[in-house]
Amino acid sequence: MMWNDDYYHMIEKHFESETMVRVANSHRTAIGFVEKTVTTEGIECEFKRVNGYLFPLSNSKEYLEMIDKELVAARRAGLTDVTTVNLGGDPSAGRIHEALEFPGCADFQPLYYLNGLADAIVNKYGCRIFEDSQVMKTDGPKVTTKEGYRVEAPNVVLATNSPIHHNLAVHSRQEPYRSYVVGLRIPKDGFREGQYWDTATPYHYVRTEEHPREGNILIVGGEDHQTGMKPKDYEDKWMKLEDWARSRWTAAGETVFKWSGEVFEPIDMLHLIGKDPLNDFQAGAIYYIATGDSGQGMTGGTLAGLIICDEILGRENPFSKIYSPSRAPPASFQTLEELASISKTVTQGLAENLNPFYCKDIEDMQPCSGAIVQKGLHKVAVYVDEKGEKHTYNAVCPHMGCLIQVIVPSFLSELK
Question: If you classify domain 355-415 with CATH, what class do you get?
């Protein structure tokens, strides 16, 4: 999408104007690359250019001023075609009135695109892709899979959502969030084509997808929250999304899909793409990472491919500097506060992992409950389902080696 979900005016506030301009241009470049690739390789993925609409959460002064600030900043960023529009409160446009229109966004089916890309890479360009080859260990130029196979390479790219190493120089600069999505049936005339985002915190995002079996689907996401929250803070996020969607797009019908995923939010708003900050400790290989895309995965993933490719080949890339994982974060109180908070969470998690006194009796656990228990030298996460059957899992998060938190929200038993 052409909009940046951390807001151009906030990027300009925390960085210099030149950085904001480059961020906007990077979005334009990523979309242009996908469009060119789809055309050149003949990939059928339903690619089309659409308008994006940023609209205020309400008509309060606070949110209207936010829209005004973003309009001015977007134009300073070089997006001179961004304008204010009135969508007239039409239910097919989410009953939205005033909004910012961002032309040049793109809709496409990501799985069709990736399959077409893989097909071209293998059959046209003679490369090889090995599926079902989970990497379990990296050691300099040596990469070892779960089955014990080893690959050696002078350049290693960790494009694994969150890098699969325990590098605090990276993990302390981003926070894991869980985002939720629902898919509701909607007639084609019930939705005005486009992408929609509101100014809520966390914000909602909306588009449609033509499903081969279920028909036209309204895809609505949002209700993000930090992972590891306490049970009292959890809500049925899917239900909240459904209610919000139906209040806006009144033709929305039955919910046929729902899912959630984890995204990583960089504390200074910009992706982390390029050479690993501790690369000098990786003897014999150069390591690159791609993470912190703030949920803008297709944009960030495309940029990662362009930037890291250029860096490996020794070419200059106009976006390497702004997205470098080694860049200095802006010295704002908020950034420093978030950095301290993440470090504290990691320290506490590691300390709990070393605590040998987890003695909860599994036999006393009730249905739809969970707990961490000590089993020999290891900690085990136990969940008891609605039938009383017990399920055990590794209680150590592979992210940084911290002890996970077992949380069973009260609404979960109702869903079951």
Answer: mainly beta
